[in-house]
Specification:
about 210 residues, alpha+beta, five-stranded antiparallel β-sheet, three-stranded antiparallel β-sheet, 6 helices
Length: about 210
């Protein structure tokens, strides 16, 4: 029997059994303001794209949920249930482990090295299970090699750490960058950081205005 565990603007998540094993069913919600035919096409395309990105991420040695089944007509992806603690809750319990943050950086670097942008790198979309990092929720992901897009990914997780976990934000982000450099290289990292600084500069300018 399916049990809803999260209602989102774009999709609902259900805990189900898939051939006897715990699984997650992600079903994209129908938007009544869209024409039915258009809405179905959009949900189909986004479902297929997300599943494709997750599959490529897994081939890129990034720990993501295993996909069991994709039904574009229903806008549904059935995938492995990652039973762990999300990074936000982990940090709220006064935990900190620099190696975990290096692992996060390495995984982000592997994504970017393989032309994948996560698009929603929040502390709630990073799961820790048995001291291993998993990335989840690729609903906003895309394929891109643009440094600007990579910078947005990095800026988002930096901003989330600063706003929600300020006492450890600086050392956590430093560890993330160490892991990121290991995956993507020094030169590439410096180019991405230039983008991050430019985004921050634009943000400060906007506040002054």
């Amino acid at each position: 029997m399916a049990r809803i565990i999260k209602k989102g603007a774009e999709a609902n998540l259900y805990q189900i059994k898939w051939f006897g094993r715990p699984a997650i069913s992600k079903v994209r919600c129908r938007k009544k303001y869209r024409l039915a035919k258009l809405d179905r096409k959009i949900r189909q395309q986004r479902t297929v794209k997300e599943a494709t990105v997750i599959h490529k991420a897994r081939l890129s040695n990034v720990s993501v949920p295993i996909i069991y089944h994709v039904n574009p007509d229903k806008g549904e992806i059935i995938m492995e249930m990652i039973d762990g603690i999300n990074l936000n809750d982990y940090l709220n319990n006064d935990n900190y482990n620099s190696d975990l943050f290096k692992d996060i950086g390495e995984m982000i670097g592997r994504l970017h090295s393989n032309g994948i942008i996560h698009g929603d790198l929040t502390t709630s979309n990073i799961i820790i299970r048995n001291n291993k990092i998993y990335l989840i929720d690729f609903g906003l992901s895309m394929f891109s090699d643009r440094t600007e897009d990579q910078g947005v990914d990095i800026k988002l997780i930096k901003a989330l750490l600063q706003s929600l976990h300020d006492p450890i934000a600086k050392k956590a982000f430093k560890a993330i960058l160490q892991g990121y450099r290991n995956s993507i290289g020094n030169n590439e990292t410096e180019e991405v950081l230039k983008v991050v600084k430019e985004i921050e500069r634009r943000g400060r300018y906007a506040k002054v205005e």
